[in-house]
Amino acid sequence: MNSNTSSGTVSRKIPTRVFSRRATSRSCWSSRCGRHIGKSRAGGLGAACWRRSSACCRRRRSVSAQPSLTGGTRRIQMVNTSLFRACVFVAVCGSVSIVNAQETTGAAAAASVAQQSAAKADGDAVVTTHHSPLTRAYWWAESKFGGSKATPDGFYPELGGMINGAGLSVGPGFRHSFFGDRMTVDASAAISWRRYKMMQSQVSWPRLMNDRLELGGQVKYQDFTQVNFFGIGNDSLKSNRTDYRLKDIDTLGFATVRANPWLSITGRAGALRRVGIERGTSTLYPATQDVFDEISAPSLTREPNYLHADIAVNADTRDVPGYPTSGGRYRLSVAAYHDQTFGQYSFRRVEADAAHYIPIRRSVVALRARVDLSQTGDGQAVPFYLLPALGGANSLRGFLDYRFRDRDLLMLNAEYRWPIARKIDAAAFYDAGTVAPEASGLTRRFNRDYGLGVRVHSDTHMLVRLDVARSHEGTRALLTFTTPLALPNRTIAPYVP
Q1: Which among 96, 159, 214, 460 counts the fewest CB atoms within 10 Å?
Q2: Does 124 map to a domain?
């Protein structure tokens, strides 16, 4: 009975002692080593586990020194032995983690040094990244056209220089500055998929008189193989579409005086030589010579040589001329053309053109208006290829190129642009315009169109745009590199408003 009572007492105390040992071990592990596992690095974890191992050894020795007990003694020793082995195992793992961490750190440092050495050997990039062809093409175009406001020296692709209707064109160009940008030489050539050809060379001194005066000269050869002609007047028929071929060489000199950074006066004088009107190369439409004559198309069969001159006042407050978002550009000019060959095709012209840009948060409203007025003396006429014309990417986008021609012209444009992605804008636009033989007729029937477009641009230039426009004569899609609502005046003949 006594033995049973004693045995029962021992059996009741042994679980308590075992539970206390386990609880102490778990509490110590979770409160100390657990924190090290969660917050410390490999070195800290290894050191903490070594401390746990020493503490466990001390507890084991203290337990072993106590008097032996019956049945429960084995259970106590087994528990302490297991705890000791577990602590030793954790300590070993901590030591291994320290070694691994040191090896990993050393390997990373070695890799970093090797990478930097390779970069120095190569000279440029540290890491080679593969990008899509579209991304590389955009970066290349931005570096050529939109990297800065200053025009870079060297070779460049000539993607413009043509008139409406040429189609996509491309060619080489080269520019170089001398004497610290005080003299610039530029030459380029281009050919389009419709076999339009252009070659030009220009020399200029842009920084005379403390950057207040620019002088220069240009020689330009043009061969446009299929220029549209529908007849003269706002009532001309689309069904009368014909085409002609125009060749000429224009030589001119120019001078620009800058009153201040945004106001300038430009004068030009030159000679238009070897003008040739030939049959167009299109196989879809008849030649202009087969449908019209000298009366309905003045100077169709007799092409004079011209001396021409013009003077213009320009005010330019645009923030970025290549792709503006605020400010505006306003121009007023007077031009004179003197017929040196026949004395029958001399005339004068007054031009007023204004474009204004209104920022609205991240969007832009662009507005443009243009008026051209031609004047002739008695017995004089304006050659049909020098008449102001409407239709095309820079005027009425919903109509064919040069759809309407006459002596006087009025044009209105409005465009709303908003960003849809990085460096990509969407646009909604509306165009209206009319032509007439006299200024009083410019308030009558307008030709209208509307549409949507997309512009890809850099910080300083527009790279390419796509417009889809609709008018009562149909829907047109136009892909061009010219800035919308710009003020182009690239050629003397044909006249491009």
Answers
A1: 96
A2: no
| Full domain range(s) for residue 322 | 135-480
**Is residue 156, in this structure, part of any structural domain at all?**
yes
When divided into structural domains, the chain yields a total of 2
Collapsing DSSP states into helix, strand and coil, what is residue 462?
Answer: strand
The span from the CA of 388 to the CA of 491, in Å, is: 12
Encoded tokens for 377: 């003396």
Burial class (CB in 10 A: 0-12, 13-18, 19+), 386: buried
- What pLDDT is recorded for position 457? 94
Is 127 a member of any domain? Answer: no
Whether 339 and 440 map to the same domain: the answer is yes
Same domain flag for 108 and 207: no
DSSP state of 355: E
- CA–CA gap between residue 331 and residue 264 (Å, rounded): 10
User: Within its chain, how far is the Cα of 28 from the centroid?
Assistant: 64
More confident residue, 86 or 305: 305
What average pLDDT does the chain have?
A: 79
90 vs 96: CA distance, rounded Å: 10
Radius of gyration (C-alpha) of the chain in whole angstroms:
42
DSSP label at residue 460: S
105-120 average pLDDT score? 44
Q: Do 38 and 164 sit in the same domain of this protein? A: no
Average pLDDT, integer, range 237-250: 96
- Give the pLDDT score at 224: 95
- Is 165 found in the same domain as 106? no
What is the DSSP code (8-state) at residue 345?
A: -
| Helix, strand, coil share of the chain (percent; to 5) | 30, 40, 30
Q: Does residue 348 fall inside a structural domain?
A: yes
Residue-wise pLDDT tens digits, 309-354:
999 999 999 999 999 999 999 999 999 999 999 999 999 999 999 9
The model carries a pTM of: 0.70
d(CA 318, CA 366): 12
